[in-house]
Amino acid sequence: MPPHLHPQQHPSQHHHHAQSHLSDQDDITAERCELPQPHIPARPSPSDAQDLSEIVRTLSRTPQGPASQNEEDAYAGSVHSDLDSFLKTKDADWSSRGLPLRRLGVRFLNVTTWGEEAGGATVKTFAEALGRTVVFRDLYEWWVRPWIASKRQRVRRRALVRDVSGIVRDGEMMLVLGRPGSGCTTLLRTVTSNHTSYLAVDGTISYSGGLTPHDIRTSYRGDVVYMPEEDTHFPHLTVRQTLEFAFRCKLPRAQAERAISTMAKVFGISHVLDTLVGNEHVRGVSGGERKRLSCIETLATDAVVVAWDGSTRGLDASATVDYARSLRILTDVGRKATIVSLYQASEEVWELMDKVLLLDEGRMIFQGPIRDAKRYFEDLGYECPNRRTTADFLTSITNPGERRFREGWEHRAPKGAVELEKAFRESEYYAALMDEVESSEARFESQADQDDFSQATKLQKQKYTRKQSNYTIHFPAQVMLCLKRQYWQVLGNISGMVIRALTTIANALVMGSLFYNQPVTSDGAFSRGGFVFYTSIFLGWIQLAELEEALSGREILARQKGFAFVRPSAVAVARTVMDLPLVFVQAVIFVVITYFMAGMKDNVGAFFTFFIFIYMVTIELTALYRMFASFSPTYEVAVRYCGLTLLIYIVFGGYTLPLKALMADAPWFGWLAYINPIYYTFEALMTTEFHNLKLACSKAQIIPYGPSYTDTRYQTCALPGNVPEMLTVLGDDYVRESFGYSLDNVWRNFGIIVAFTVGLWVAGAVGTEVFDWSGTTARAVVYSKKQPKIGNAEGDVEGAECVKVGNVHGEKRLEGSERGSAPGARTVQLDRSKAIFTWKNLVYTIPPTKAGGGEGKRLLNRVNGICRPGEMTALIGSSGAGKTTLLSILSQRGKTGTVTGEMRINGLPLPADFERSTGLCEQMDIHDPSSTILEAFTFSALLRQDPDIPHSEKLAYVDTVIDLLDLRHLKDALIGSLALEQKKRTTIGVELCARPKLLLFLDEPTSGLDSQGAYNIVCLLRKLADEGQSILCTIHQASQQIIEMFDRVLALNPGGNTFYCGPVGRSTGGGDIIRYFERYGVSVRDGKNVADFLIEVGRGLVKSSISDAEKLGQNNNANAVDWNKVWSGSPEHASLLSEIASVTPSRSTTRHSSIRTRTKEFSSSTLTQTRLLTTRLTLQFWRTPEYGYSRLYASFLHSLLNGFTFYKIGSSANTSLAALQARSFSIFLLLMIVPEYVNAVAYRFILNKSLFHTRELPSRIYTSTAFTTANLLSEIPYIVLCAVVFFLLWFFPTGFPIASAGYVFLMMLVFNVFSVGWGQWIAALAPDYNIAANLIPFFIIMCESFNGILREYGMLPGVWRYTMYHVNPMTYFVRGMLGALMEGREVRCAEGEFNTFKAPPGVGCADYVGAWLGGKGVTGYLAAGNTTAVGQQEVCKFCRYGRAEEYLRTLNVGPGGQNVGGRWADFGVFLGFAVVNWGLVYLFMWKGEGWGVARVRRRVRSWVGRVRGMIMGGGGESRNV
Length: 1521
Description:
This protein is 50% helix and 10% strand. The longest helix is centred in the C-terminal third of the chain and has 31 residues, at 1264-1294. It is elongated, with a radius of gyration of 37 Å. Helix 21 (475-492) packs across helix 26 (568-597). By secondary structure, the chain is of the alpha/beta class. It has a 6-stranded mixed sheet with strand order 6-7-8-4-9-10, sandwiched between helices. The protein has a 6-stranded mixed sheet with strand order 21-22-23-18-24-25, with helices on both faces. It contains 60 helices and 29 strands.
């Protein structure tokens, strides 16, 4: 056997010992570890092959149930054959070329990692954010201080990992242990050269061959990788697509396909290869399958140094052992250096490791061989309790509340991180460690090793790939792979594209109908300009919905950059390339509909010019959004910049104010037109459309016009570009005179737009490379108010997870009120439940995934159970067994599917207040992140406890729960900044503060915690049960100590089948469970963890020695036991049914059953709910400054740009026609802030709505009425502030008359109220933000287009003039503002604005046009004529308007319009629309469901299901959820 298969043995010789523990899963590892190792010239030995075969049998077993032994052997054999063939091929290929083996070790000496200082950080509020802006502090810190101070000087720092040394050679595994916050993650990231999220790293880190962290980051990034704990993947990709992308980044196509097939078989995910990965919002594979996908993706890197951080989170205990065994074989066969940080490591996992490193507060308190760790601490005076694993024992030493001392050593043993570190540094183990580290220096500096490694690495790279590149494939290949993945994502989320297409069609129809069939006359000239301008920007505006997509997946891209799969810029380029065909389709739909509906020039060249410019400028805007996304940390920041840029594009696009006027009237902003692609698009499309277009002068614009005026020699057309004595205006003259445009600039402008686009593409790609917004810099716990500084100055903790206060450093763990209750606080006892909860024959079926296909999938199958007061019941099962599903159904939180069976309380049907009377602690720890612990507890207590409980007692109960959970020192901490264990405690506390009278449900409360954290949580639950609480809890990775704390267990296997439900046997170490299975021929070894044993039974790994097949429920193979059938025929099952049947209504409950039926669904009144929720939301807005600040920022810049672009335009000195039209445009541009308001409000509302629907409505905390009212009331301060800022910075610079100030301010105030309500009801209507983002442009264009400005009232198509115009709220806002600011103003044309014509010879101008001027509907005035000599013709100068009212009548404003009541009537109607907006919010949120898109979709599905049921038949009672 080649020597590299088994590295040098440590004195423990633990490999030999662990060989007997290699079970089915070890096989998996070997296969997956070998797969991406084409360079390893070796194959597994026969013993390794046997282990591989066993692992294959375990991991390749599908959850459909146990297969026969022959089938398993055959399947495992085929998989092993594939692996064997794969290894032979690679071995032959690599050996034939005589290439060296790729191998690296890592050596670190005196390493200290620095992060930001912890302790007492206070939350940044809206006021602070505003203050920092006012005094330019943000600008200073962002742009000035980085140039004058280094990063470590700018921030007060603390040591996250302090002075740690060690070595991990190739072929070795090191286990890193420590409590959350002790520095495990930091150490793993540090030794793998992932330093970007830290202030600095001191000390020496080197790799074999003398490679440095700089070398790793610049040339070998993919060879030293860190796998984070979270399983984040693109949800709309399938498992196969995800793996194909990963392997194709490292292997040729043929090898990648074979690798995927082999690895999927080995890891047992072949059956889900074509299933979406999914996430918490998209239905996909299970959590365990997603974890295995993450592992395979990491193995695809072919890295030689791998750090696995908490990679067993979400796996059950049996799968965790299999996973660790897989890593063992991977390390042995692949000669990898493996560093693992695991929570709740069992003894089997422990024995698979070589070394262990124990951290406490970032200090190394032990590092050495596995076999010596326990003895070392025992020699220091610590005691390892019976049944406690060695890993748990080591971790408990760092916990003052859990550690135990040998008798007589209580005061002699070192305690705390500092003393333990000192003791270790004085020990022989530290000396041996340093000798090993120092003696390895020569080996690690070997140039030969570096040359071998570099040569092997370079030979793996694709042709044309730069040899010093981190990446295996070259940049064009990366782009092609990313492009393929982007295409898969589009197909996986095809509904998003359908929504986008439907939105485009709807908006195109609206735009086309607004400008329907424009005449080729002077009347159509201005409207054609409006059509060209708004179609130029509109499609790009719709693309703003791409902003969220551009910001999504940052964690995934950052991880894959660390894996050296692809560069972030390759992803950016691929997204850009994918935009080209998608935008092309949108542009075709939009242009074809709008162009021909609007009656544009019937010319092929003009059409294609129009199309290509619309297409190109839309691509440019999309590139702009993606650039802002790459430069922005959050959505709120990105949308802020996008909104401002859109405003600049609109104001300085050449339509509202021509460039000449801009440079003359507002030169400080006019230059922005030159960097505005809309300006160049508008010029090109206007000159193309009007080229050679002959515009006949309409009657209304012929001066003079009437029966007496028939000689065109003495008439003119009131259209720029007119020629005296002609009533036809050439389009080229019109655009040249009006805008200064030339047809010669068309393709020059196209080139400029292309240059803009390319520049934005490059900037966006560079931004993705430079900025890493996914970094997780360790930060302190954030408090709502300043806290006293605690601990040492450095704060040797990691992030928010290790704030040491109170009794943490003490030697005694305080209980109850001893934990330091607040002075004078009155505590109360926890309530004791009196309800017995039973369920019988529960069957839960979800509908089929495809319409009409199948009969649905059964997730729970005839499940029975009982929960009594004072008892803890554990739900146990492997991944996919239905534990969470059962918990959701029992707690009445199921949302889809059909449930049959019975659920009863004390033998009676569930009461109306069941949800309120129970508590559900969900696995995801969903809270308002801006609330403090105390605020969340108080909120729950005041709203969920019975109304007859005094207010003071509710608050006292909160104090009791805070002390019970040991959270007194964190009561003012914001929940969003807490560590995982603290969030778990907070979740439990929120439910306890509700005083659940019936039951407390918990879904995997120990998930993601270390063994001590899990133990503490379960101890807490045990205490609650002992005080009378009834508890039902799902749990995995339960140690023997933990499982012995439960009274009963309900065990499920895949398919939702029960195979055991009964007592644990607490006093006998799980004896009741063991005796049950021993009765059926199962031998359980002494000390076996019964929780692990049950999971192994559920997975079909446990065999029976009884040969009586009938007794075991099988007819063919006695060893393959159907434990479901065994359970259903057991006396324990009969006893359970008898116990359930014996729970009958007591006399007292029967007597008061009428009272039960009248129980309120919600505990508190709607008024109380509204008051408390308003307080919480007000604090949320205050502590989330990005939200309010973004809107204030938008108000400030919009008003500033508008006010100073149209500076003094409202002054009485400005009487020209240009000023008249500019005033109306200034008012119209006020509407441009609406999209920013609506997007920001909708985004925040949907976040709060998600919390409401996910946790707070199912718990019956408050009603939808309270939710809606509180959201409205909380917005009022920001509405007023934004209105004041906008009014001051717009009204006074524009110079409008002071007399109108009061009316204008009221309109601005109502305008802000309207905009907020508008955003909220769109958010209430839409099921998610993606749909809301696509709906918003449609609603906004409907309101902003039909108000009489974009197209005058008289020119609106009839269908819109009599409908949309009058139901459009913006109509009344614009009319009211125009009337208030322009009525009563005199108009005097400036030179150049007069229309000139000649009077007939011998006739004066006044006499010539007198009859016409006196006619009905004629507006304007005649200026004095100009006679050059006697008998010559007089040249007449005519101004179209003499007073502003004459102009306003064309806009349907004023006495001549339809607003009979004047501007105050418009104000009243607009106010009414604002009220209607809020009414729509109530309607769409009614009873938590409302009448939104999601409800309509559910109703349709329900009706389809009922019809299908009636057609197909069926019987039995059922309940739809």
